[in-house]
Every structure is written in structure tokens, then in C-alpha cells.
Specification:
By secondary structure, the chain is α/β, with parallel strands linked by helices. Helices cover 42% and strands 16% of the residues. It binds NADP nicotinamide-adenine-dinucleotide phosphate (NAP).
Length: 285
């Protein structure tokens, strides 16, 4: 097994590469441009992977509202290029997608299953759903793994994530308003990376949901971060409307991961456990 990881220096990719050990072919943005078919073909023809895990993505959810064509190029045309190379070379493509393919249906508060009809509500979500369809249409040997609210230590050193943002605001402010009317499952890239490796080793294919277990609002996640970090701050529940982000997000995008559990044997750990481990590892770095 030779596994090319695109987006290899991002949050998730940088956790996957060490787990794969000598099987990994690390493809950062400096080595491959997934929107450019010529780059995809020449790099992959050179390294000849049997599997690709695509972690490369345009993840700026709010900015995507202003430049949807950029998001579409990276999140839809990029995976299409990878899928076509895989199909022509009998390789398997594991493509990482998002809970933001849901959101249009606002009455449902039951965890989403892989068979539920998606309905994105943002340019980012639409571009990711288009990427899923390109992968499904072009590459018979595919895995599409939808996940949610990723955080990892690599982003802590670079772009940041929700936990790092909360820790910074906890130092700067005495009071904070956090959205309490959107529910999902924040997910640790270390837990997700373990699962993705198990999944490609299992030779399963199709669409899977993969998040830590349980669910919470952003307000509840912030409260847990501050509790575990012994930061005392006035935390006030707020609404998405009050926060006024440029992109609309799902009110409820909890994913049912039981199909994945059936393949890898056990569910991912509870989100509270994953957050506690992240904070502990951060302290000891
Ligand atoms: N972050 C989340 O909360 C979240 C939630 C649900 C699903 N996901 C999905 O999970 C996957 C991994 O996310 P992540 O948080 O690890 O992302 P990330 O940290 O932003 O990493 C993405 C990587 O992709 C690279 N990249 C961007 N455009 C590229 C291109 N055109 N060609 C090649 N490489 C390119 C980036 O390099 P540069 O920075 O150098 O451009 C970056 O290293 C993505 O598919 C994402 O949509 C993420």
C-alpha cells in the first residue's frame, strides 16, 4: 500500500502522514496543485500511489461567500482531478468532506445518516458537495468521509481553530457571547486520523460519517474548554443570527456514525474526552 496524502501539512494531513509511516507519500501544497490537472497527473504518475487520501481543501467558510469560484475550484474540481487519476490507475480515493453538506432541512434534529438527502446552505457546503459527486461519478473505488469541526495541533501553530480562539479570547476578555443554537460534534484530528487509516485498511468503500461521539453547541464546547483550562470568564449564550457570520451554517449537523462503527469496530471517543486530551497535549508541548 502506497498512500499519497494531499493537504499533507494541514491539520488532518499532518496527523495522517506519521500514522501511515513508510506507506505515506506526503504531498503538501508545494508539491501538488490539485486544481491543475497537469500537476495532478505528473506528480501522481511519478509517485504511483495505490491510495490517495485527499485532505486538501478550501476551508474559509465565510470568505467562500465572496469567492465561490475559488472554493469550487479547490473543493470540487480538485477532487475531480484526483478521482480521474485514480480511476485510470486502479487506485482508491478517500476524500474528506463535511457536515456542511447538510443544513437546508431545518426541522430534523436526528443525527444525519449517509443515506439522508444533503442540502448545503453555504458556498463552501455547495463546493464540498459538488466534490463528493465528482468523486462518486468518476472513481469507482472511492471513500467519502464526512467529518465536522476539526481541531489539531498543527493549526494551533498556524491558522488556529475553535479551541485556540477560545483560549486566546479567554485571556483577552472578561465576558464572551457564544452561539448556542447550532449543534454538531467537534472532532479531534488525531482520533479521525486513526479511523481513516483503519478505514483504508478495511477495503470498505462508499460514504461514511466520522466524528467524535456525542454532540454540543458552540457555547457548550466553549464552556468545556474554559472549565478544563481553569479559565474563569462570563460566558453568555447567544444566537447565530446575533453573531451574524457571513455564511449560513446548519442549525443541526450531528452525524450518525454507526455505519463507520460497523467497519472499524468501535465509535470514536466522546468529544469531551478528545478536547481534554488536546488541552493536555498542548500543555505538555
Ligand atoms: N477544519 C474543519 O473544521 C473541517 C470540518 C469538516 C470537514 N473538514 C474537511 O476536512 C479536510 C481537512 O481539513 P483541515 O482542517 O485539515 O484543512 P487545513 O488545515 O486547511 O489543510 C488543508 C490543506 O490543503 C492545502 N491546499 C489548499 N488548497 C490546495 C490546492 N489547491 N492544492 C493542494 N493543496 C491545497 C492547504 O495548503 P495551503 O494552506 O498552503 O494552501 C492546507 O495545507 C478538508 O477536506 C475539509 O474540508 C474540515
Amino acid at each position: 500500500m502506497r498512500v499519497a496524502v494531499t493537504g499533507a501539512v494541514g491539520q488532518l494531513g499532518s496527523e495522517l502522514v506519521p500514522r501511515l509511516g513508510p506507506r505515506a507519500i506526503s504531498l503538501g501544497h508545494d508539491r501538488i496543485e490539485i486544481t491543475d490537472d497537469a500537476s495532478v497527473v505528473s506528480v501522481l504518475d511519478d509517485v504511483r500511489p495505490t491510495h490517495i487520501i485527499n485532505c486538501a481543501a478550501y476551508n474559509l467558510v465565510d470568505r467562500a461567500e465572496d469567492e465561490p469560484e475559488v472554493a469550487y475550484r479547490v473543493n470540487a474540481c480538485g477532487p475531480r482531478n484526483l478521482a480521474r487519476w485514480c480511476a485510470a490507475n486502479q487506485a482508491t480515493l478517500l476524500h474528506v468532506s463535511t457536515d456542511y453538506v447538510f443544513g437546508l432541512e431545518t426541522n430534523s434534529h436526528v443525527p444525519w445518516r449517509e443515506t439522508d438527502r444533503p442540502g448545503p446552505v453555504s458556498a463552501y457546503g455547495i463546493s464540498k458537495l459538488a466534490g463528493e459527486y465528482f468523486v462518486r461519478t468518476n472513481c469507482p473505488r472511492h471513500l467519502i468521509v464526512r467529518t465536522c469541526g476539526l481541531y489539531g495541533h498543527n493549526a494551533a501553530r498556524g491558522k488556529g481553530n475553535f479551541i485556540e480562539t477560545m483560549l486566546r479570547l479567554g485571556r483577552e476578555r472578561s465576558e464572551l457571547r457564544i452561539v448556542d443554537d447550532q449543534r454538531c460534534t467537534p472532532t479531534s484530528v488525531t482520533d479521525l486520523a486513526d479511523t481513516l487509516v483503519s478505514l483504508i485498511e478495511s477495503e470498505a468503500w462508499g460514504v461514511y460519517h466520522a466524528t467524535n461521539s456525542g454532540d454540543c453547541s458552540w457555547f457548550q464546547l466553549a464552556a468545556e474548554i474554559f472549565r478544563l483550562s481553569n479559565i474563569s470568564i462570563g460566558l453568555i449564550p447567544s444566537t447565530a443570527a446575533e453573531y451574524g457570520a457571513k455564511a449560513r451554517r446548519p442549525d443541526y449537523s450531528v452525524l450518525d456514525c454507526s455505519k463507520l462503527t460497523g467497519v472499524v469496530g468501535s465509535p470514536l471517543p466522546a468529544w469531551q474526552d478528545a478536547v481534554a486530551r488536546y488541552l493536555h497535549e498542548r500543555e505538555s508541548q
